[in-house]
Structures are given as structure tokens and as C-alpha cells.
Amino acid sequence: MTDQWITRKTLLLRTLNPDDESAWEEFVDYYGRFIYHIILKMGISSSTSDDVAQQIVIKLWKKINTYDSSKGSFRPWLSTVIRNSVNEHYRKENRRKENAFFEGEENQISVENDIDQMIQNEWENHLTEEAIKHVKEVFSGKAVEAFLMGLDGFSNADIAEKLDIALPSVKVLKARVKSCFISEMRKLTRNMERR
């Protein structure tokens, strides 16, 4: 197991120590993009998104010691903090505008379900991006390009032509990268969503 995975597994434990600045820097580096994407998809304007993201990180810093892994994995807990923070932002904003964000309780449940699905989709995208980042560190450019082109729907023949490599090489490269990608996704899922 690499040092990266040892660090990832212990990152949440390290963040419990408010004096461990490096743990928080690593935490923000890893989860910051995820948080930012979620709040933009939840309709936070780009002009206030940095402030809202910063408020969420501060809230996480204050509440991380309340996370209980026996009650569930970290990602749903993180999602709840993000959702509640964004809802709080809208309530404050709407008080200023004297509008209601939610028209009724039934609408709130529907919106929360939509938000939960959006957060799940964004989390899967985040894990995929992290796995692809790892694959790019392991494999050369053409191997990764062949794999990504395959994901984009290009045929093996088109990939061979565009990358100027033999057709059998395309199949081998894609298979190797795919195997590494799947393995990395499993590691990420196991280490980032475990209870």
C-alpha cells in the first residue's frame, strides 16, 4: 500500500486534531473541488461560490469531531453538511429578498431528493477524476489517450488511426489502463466511502 493510501485512510482521523494544519490542507485540497462543484450545481452564483465553499470548510472544521463512522460512511455525512450549508445560505439570502426558497414542505422533500442524487452523481464524477489522475501518473500519454478515447465512444480502429499505433496495441493499452482504472476506483470507493 502506498503512502498516499495510508494518508487517505488516516486523513479523517488526522483532521480531528485542530492543530494539524497539514491534515486540513490535504482535506481541502482533496474535497475542495467536490464541494465547489456541488454548490455551483445547487445554483450558488459564481460570485458568492468561493465564500460559500469557505463557509462549508469552516463548518466541516468545526463539526468533523461529530462525524461517527459507525452511523455511516463519510460521503453522506459530508453531503448533508454541504446541503444544509447551501440551504442556510439561500435562507439568509431570501430573508434579505423577502422570498421563500421552498414553497412548501412537499417541495422541500423533492428538492432534497434531487440534491441527494446530484451530490451522488458529483461524488461519482469526483472519484472518476481522481482515478483518471492516478492512471495518468502510471501510464504514458498514448495509453491513457487510447483509454479515454474508448470511453468517448471511438472505435479501436479510429483510435489506432488517430494515435498512429497498431490496432492490437490499442486493445492491449486499453485493457491495461482499464484494469488500473477499475482497481483505482475500487480503492477510492473502499477508502473514501468506508464506514
Automatic annotation (TrEMBL):
Positions of the RNA polymerase sigma-70 region domain: 28-96
GO biological process, one term: DNA-templated transcription initiation
Highest taxon, organism lineage: Bacteria
The entry's keywords: DNA-binding, Sigma factor, Transcription, Transcription regulation
Molecular-function GO term, any one: DNA binding
Transmembrane segments: none
SUPFAM superfamilies: Sigma2 domain of RNA polymerase sigma factors
Alphabetical list of InterPro entries matching this protein: RNA_pol_sigma-70-like, RNA_pol_sigma-70_dom, RNA_pol_sigma70_r2, RNA_pol_sigma_r2
Gene3D superfamilies, A to Z: 1.10.1740.10
Name under which the protein is recorded: Probable RNA polymerase sigma-H factor
